Amino acid sequence: MLFRSFFSFRREASDACLLRKFGIASVFATTLFVGGIALGQGGGGGGGNNNNNNNNGNFNNNGFNLGNRVGGVKVDANGVLRALSVQEQDEALEEARRSIVGPQGELKTPANQRLVSLKKIQQIVLESQKTQKPLPEEVSYLGGLTRVSNVFVYPERNDIVIAGPAEPWTVGPNGTIVGIKSGRPIVTLDDLLNAMRTVDSARKTGISVSIDPTEEGTVRLRKLLSQVKITANQSNWQSLETAMRDAFGPQQVKLQGVSANTRMARVILTADYKMKLYGMNLEKAPVDGLPSYLDMMVQSKGRNVQSRWWMTCDYSSIEHSADRLAWKITGRGIKTLTEEEQIAADGSVSQKGKADPIAKKWADTFTSKLEELSVKDPVFGELRNIMDLCVVAAIIQSNGLQELAGCDLSACIGDNAQPTLSQVAFPTSLDPQCSFVRAAQGFVVSASGGVMVDSWQVAATAKTSDELSVSLQGKQWSEESRIWQ
């Protein structure tokens, strides 16, 4: 499972002799690195579906359709992942504002806990697909849920219900649909259906995304760096950056375990991409108190190490009642971890099993800022929502909740799920990135990582709690025709 796309050369303008002493070729030998994106228990990169589907349709034309634009990035006509221009960002916002109707009736009021019926969702989704009639926004945005904190089983209703805090929705940054009160991204029907559809993949083989260099690009880069000379002239560094990018060439994007043209795949990839932009000082984080990893290395006069970091699940507890009818998911949902790596001359990578102090400090800082980031850069909140939903799907499937409820969700859960999901372009390649930063000495650092959602492993940690019981308000629904209560 490889992620080799971002690299950074650090140098001191006034100390060209020191650069020559170290030798850029030998220093730069540490710039290829591993990481990746993996969801599920299992995983591994490579293989996969590289379908660059540019069909910008949405599931039954329901809700706002960003199409090719997710998380402030897009896939261009050549299949390359790129950031949106200012004009494209403005266009996405305007399109979103024109497209949504907004919450109606009781949904205009926030709720500490709103319940959403999975049985009713399946019924409405299948009927909508049959009749080709669009779904209402309250279904597409799951009644305004901003997190999923509970799962309830109602055998008397033959239903399984998810629940959590909910808000009226509006358009937020990058055209993301967010809660009016908190600014957190709304949990979407599309992500729920994707999490349910991929639950078996999460258990069997995992879901992975990798970005790999070509062998030809690696050879060209090594040859270039063996010949290059650095001077104190800034134009020389800029020329080197261009030359390195050209030599390394486009990175291949590969996907396994989830359809490439789904919104879920794009959100996971985009969140990892954004994390690296912030870590490598290629884009300034939109929250205070989050310097780049490179800035931390400069300030701390850090040693030349190869580190990777990745985002993964972070739940403090999964609890259930003795009868397994009530479930509670507690925790911030997402955190960032780090580990040192050792890279051999042939480019192979091995984990050293320990964390560099500076890399760990950046990972911990990034984790502490993820709540703020989920508002300022909503793709991180969308990633957390996906983690919540993957855990919910694993709880349902691994604990036989369909049988316990007498509720058949087979049309929406597992490999044979029927609904057609949003069609979102997935990149076939990504341009390499370079970052030149002043440092006390000349050396190279790089950052790698990804996203790992061990949904089945999280579900397996569930413990019995005597304090949990099914909420009475879910037993009698005032309006049987709607999905929420």
Describe the structure.
- The protein has one domain.
- It is built from 16 helices and 20 strands.
- The strands form three sheets. Strands 1, 2, 3, 4, 10, 11, 12, 15, 16, 17, 18 and 19 form a twelve-stranded mixed sheet that branches. It has a six-stranded mixed sheet with strand order 5-7-6-14-13-20. A two-stranded antiparallel sheet has the order 8-9.
- Strand 8 and strand 9 form a beta hairpin.
- It is globular.
Compact overview of the structure:
With 485 residues, the chain is an alpha+beta fold. The protein has helices at 16-22, 24-27, 86-99, 118-131, 137-140, 189-197, 199-204, 215-227, 234-248, 263-279, 293-300, 357-368, 370-376, 379-398, 401-405, 455-459; strands spanning 6-11, 37-39, 73-75, 80-83, 111-117, 150-154, 159-166, 169-171, 177-179, 207-212, 251-256, 306-314, 317-320, 326-330, 333-343, 349-351, 429-430, 433-438, 443-453, 463-464.
* Integer average pLDDT: 75
In terms of per-residue confidence, which ranges show pLDDT below 50 for 5 or more consecutive residues?
1-66, 342-350, 438-445
**CA-based gyration radius:** 23 Å
Approximate strand percentage: 15-25%
- Shape field: globular
The biggest beta sheet reads:
12 strands, mixed
Secondary structure class reads alpha+beta
**Number of extended strands:** 20
Instruction: Work out the helicity level.
Output: 25-40%
Number of helices: 16
Number of domains: 1
Alpha-carbon distance between the two ends: 43 Å
